[in-house]
Amino acid sequence: GAQIGLEYRFGIASGTQFGFYRTSDRTVEFFAQQDLWQPDTHPFGLALAASVEGLDNFQDELQPRVALVISRAMGERLALYAVPTFIANTNIGVGVKMFGIVRTIPR
């Protein structure tokens, strides 16, 4: 069946956010993100994200993750993201993933 998740995210200061996420299969994730560079003062945005995820209501198979979020706005309607990510304690031992996101901004 489908996974249902609930996320609670809040900001403490400008550029800082914390939160948690829980799914219907009792996976829990705690996360934080801190902006390092704002795209309005640099050619691109840079943020550091970290999280830890655990199964069975955070009782089993903890997986820490750290990621660098690199973003670039292209005009008013397009944003590009690259997110190199390190994940520990995966089924293969240690995972490193890299993905990009293209986001269109509606008018």
In short:
The protein is mostly beta strands and 107 residues long.
Please describe the structure with a list of short key phrases separated by commas or semicolons.
107 residues; mainly beta; 7 strands; elongated
Identify the strand order in the major beta sheet: 1-2-3-4-5-6-7
What gap, in angstroms, lies between the N and C termini? 35 Å
Strand content: over 45%
Order of helices and strands: EEEEHEEE
Mean pLDDT: 84
- What is the overall silhouette? elongated
Please compute the radius of gyration using only Cα atoms. 16 Å
The number of helices is 1
Number of strands: 7
Structural class: mainly beta
Helix content: under 10%
Q: Please mark out the parts with pLDDT under 50 across 5 or more consecutive residues, or reply none.
A: none
**Major sheet attributes:** 7 strands, antiparallel
Topology:
Elements: E1 5-13, E2 16-23, E3 28-37, E4 45-54, H1 55-58, E5 60-74, E6 78-90, E7 93-104
Antiparallel strand pairs: 1-2, 2-3, 3-4, 4-5, 5-6, 6-7
Describe the protein in words.
A hairpin with a 3-residue loop joins strand 5 and strand 6. This protein starts with a strand and ends with a strand. It is built from 1 helix and 7 strands; from the N terminus they run E-E-E-E-H-E-E-E. It has one helix at 55-58, and strands at residues 5-13, 16-23, 28-37, 45-54, 60-74, 78-90, 93-104. The protein has a 7-stranded antiparallel beta sheet. The model has no long low-confidence stretch (mean pLDDT 84). It is elongated and about 45 Å long.
